[in-house]
Specification:
Elements (H helix, E strand, L loop, with lengths): L2 E5 L5 E5 L1 H4 L6 H13 L6 H27 L4 H17 L8 H7 L5 H38 L5 H15 L1
Antiparallel strand pairs: 1-2
Helix pairs in contact: 2-3, 4-6, 5-6, 6-7
Length: 174
């Protein structure tokens, strides 16, 4: 069967493509499909059991289809295929870096490649991971800074403690 059916309580049906059919897709397409369903479609379904079933199915696709195929290409010796995959992965990473996180550890090996294009693409994706981590850290520190600022204004911490925390935040921001 080419379709996976999910039956809603109200008698409706949600259709998603079958995992087996995805094996014929380009390697990055299952990742894009998963992200699209999670971001654009999943919230539209009111039935929580359907949401859980679809989430479970998407996780299966990720574990059984998307990641193994992607890793298979990245571990191969075919530079053209690797370059094509990395180019597509870079496009996905620009939109949502979290979607390509499973391949992060393979990028280190690809940076040792003899092919300059493979090295360049893998470095670009790796840099995107570093930037994303930095943004997360800044967001975490910003949240702490707001809390400390509120505490300072409420008189719960001293000016020296606030200055020290603010200095740490500004150093990280640079």
């Amino acid at each position: 069967m080419d379709i996976k059916l999910f039956h809603k309580k109200d008698g409706g049906v949600i259709q998603l493509i079958d995992k087996e059919k995805m094996k014929n897709w380009p390697v990055e397409l299952p990742l894009i499909f998963i992200e699209y369903i999670r971001e654009k479609k999943l919230d539209r379904y009111e039935d929580n059991t359907i949401k859980k079933d679809i989430e479970s199915y998407l996780d299966e696709i990720m574990k059984e289809i998307a990641i193994p195929r992607l890793i298979g290409v990245l571990d191969s010796e075919n530079d053209e295929e690797i370059i094509l995959s990395l180019t597509r992965i870079l496009d996905v990473a620009k939109k949502n870096i979290e979607m390509v996180k499973p391949i992060q550890k393979y990028l280190v090996d690809l940076q040792k490649s003899k092919n300059n294009k493979v090295v360049e693409l893998s470095k670009n994706i790796s840099e995107m991971f570093v930037k994303a981590e930095r943004r997360k850290e800044l967001a975490r520190k910003r949240k702490i800074m707001r809390q400390k600022e509120k505490e300072f204004l409420d008189g719960k911490i001293t000016a020296q403690d606030y200055a020290k925390i603010r200095k740490e935040y500004l150093l990280l921001k640079e």
